[in-house]
Specification:
It contains 18 helices and 24 strands. It is α+β, with helices and mostly antiparallel strands.
Length: 504
């Protein structure tokens, strides 16, 4: 039996997981990464520390697995999209890594919308421009810290940087860079004119060669092997944007399926043979299966908002649960289940980490009275997060038939109560994928193809993906949730003129 390593770098943790050839998760290790917030709206990380954290996660996963490292056949990556990771001519980071929740460049998005750049870019990339995309951050750096760009040799996504540290070879990868306004989706290549539209012509030569997700991008070096316990010389596949990884690990392989990922980000997606070019969806990018495009609606408005609630408003309950050998999530699910949807009219906007509704939008509770307690507020958090997904799904469904079911993964999928709310709001059955580290598993599939274990992604899916249950929507709640969703939209619309007073 051969084994595959998937490394997943999200917004708060770096994880390494080991899988066998049939997708069984043998072990996983998760190490937190420190988020630096030098100013409001800035979210960064020390890239040297990030590499150390990744190496630690891989070592711990191998040690926990009990397997002989010699039986590891390949390694690959998934990672958060957007953000920016740069390496200088000296091989060292030229700036801190910037995470996908960073909002410092919001003014550039507004400027490009006003001066016609947005429309010109859309004709090439078929996607909106986001403040957290590397093009926006690079424009900000050009104006605010130009020396950074001068000393930068390579521009990476987070997984590309970790791959560079494992192999010493610099490559970019299509799923990440095509979703970052770097790639002309018609030509499927870099476009110098595109970079010049952003005022970033000098950046063009800093973009590394592009590879597909399962392409070999080098081999584990002796130095990296000593640091990670990975075998020297095993193939390292390019890897993919984490929304692709979770999609492929959910079985997303044809045009009939749709999936949602409820993690830090609200990710909602399907694939098709051509991009959507009518302007009704925010993002088109290349999918990890060649010949398909990923059609995506997303925002940082998902389960990360609940983690904020737990951290700041449930510290006592969390400590109590830990002392009793339980989990705080048992408490959160119990609280939410005790309140019927029609018995709480609080609206929560899950915009604590930003929103695509408005670049300046902030999280808020609306409708609080002296009657309400934390239980009501938490139910509003659960519902508000689902409503953010529903907003995206409604946009996606303008371009395809309603699927027979939607596949759900991420933290929310571990809560039966939450999954039921998803089903009731969408009025579509929800398939729950077997609880694994799906980002890492998708990466491991790419590693398996590179290592010759699987011939292609459909074969990998047939061997590794399991649906554990399907939750049916309750028709009696359809109207109740529609009314609550309209209230949610009304709050967003009502606050649209106020956000300018809350600039970072």
């Amino acid at each position: 039996m051969k084994y595959l390593v998937g490394i997943d770098n999200g917004g708060t943790f770096s994880k390494a997981a080991i899988f066998d050839e049939d997708g069984k998760q043998i072990s996983v290790a998760s190490v937190p990464t420190v988020t630096l917030t030098p100013k409001s709206g800035y979210t960064e990380r020390d890239m040297n520390e990030l590499w150390e954290v990744n190496a630690q996660a891989v070592r711990e996963a191998i040690q926990k697995s009990g397997i002989d490292p010699k039986n590891i056949a390949g390694v690959s990556f998934s990672g958060h999209g957007k953000g920016l990771y740069m390496v200088g001519y000296d091989g060292k980071p030229s700036y801190n890594g910037i995470i996908s929740t960073d909002a410092r460049a919001w003014e550039y998005v507004e400027k490009w919308a006003q001066d016609g750049t947005k429309e010109k870019v859309y004709d090439k990339t078929f996607q909106d421009i986001l403040a957290c995309q590397p093009v926006s951050i690079l424009a900000w750096l050009k104006d605010n810290d130009p020396e950074v760009l001068k000393r930068t040799q390579y521009i990476f996504a987070v997984k590309d940087y970790i791959r560079f540290m494992l192999t010493g070879e610099a490559y970019a990868e299509y799923t990440d860079f095509s979703g970052a306004n770097f790639v002309n989706l018609t030509t499927k290549a870099y476009d110098r004119e595109l970079m010049e539209l952003f005022g970033l012509g000098e950046v063009y030569d800093k973009l590394p060669p592009l590879k597909y997700s399962s392409d070999i991008c080098g081999y584990v070096t002796k130095e990296a092997a000593e640091k990670t316990m990975l075998p020297e010389g095993i193939p390292v596949a390019a890897g993919m944007f984490d929304v692709n990884a979770c999609g492929i690990a959910s079985g997303l392989s044809d045009e009939n399926e749709m999936c949602m990922i409820a993690g830090t980000w609200s990710i909602n997606e399907f694939i098709r043979k051509t991009p959507v070019t009518n302007g009704t969806v925010a993002l088109n990018s290349m999918f990890c299966i060649p010949g398909y495009f990923l059609v995506e609606e997303s925002s940082p408005t998902s389960a990360g908002n609940m983690e904020w609630f737990i951290r700041n408003l449930m510290s006592y309950e969390k400590a109590e649960a830990k002392a009793a050998g339980g989990s705080v999530y048992e408490i959160t699910n119990k609280w939410v289940e005790e309140i019927k949807p029609q018995d709480s009219d609080i609206i929560f906007l899950p915009f604590l980490n930003g929103s695509n509704e408005d670049a300046l939008a902030k999280g808020t509770f609306v409708g609080l009275t002296a009657f309400h307690n934390k239980h009501h507020m938490l139910r509003a958090v659960y519902e508000g997060i689902v409503f953010s997904h529903y907003t995206h799904v409604r946009k996606l469904l303008k371009n395809r038939e309603t699927p027979s079911s939607v596949r759900l993964s991420g933290g929310a999928a571990n809560s039966d109560v939450w999954v039921q709310i998803f089903a009731d709001v969408l009025q579509i059955p929800i398939d729950v994928i077997e609880d694994k580290e799906l980002g890492a598993q998708g990466a491991a599939m790419a590693a398996g193809i590179a290592a010759g274990i699987y011939p292609d992604y459909p074969t990998a899916i047939s061997r590794t993906v399991t649906i554990t249950k399907t939750v049916q929507p309750r028709k009696e709640y359809a109207q109740i949730y529609q009314e609550k969703y309209q209230r949610y939209r009304a709050v967003i619309n009502g606050l649209s003129s106020a956000w300018k007073y809350f600039k970072n």
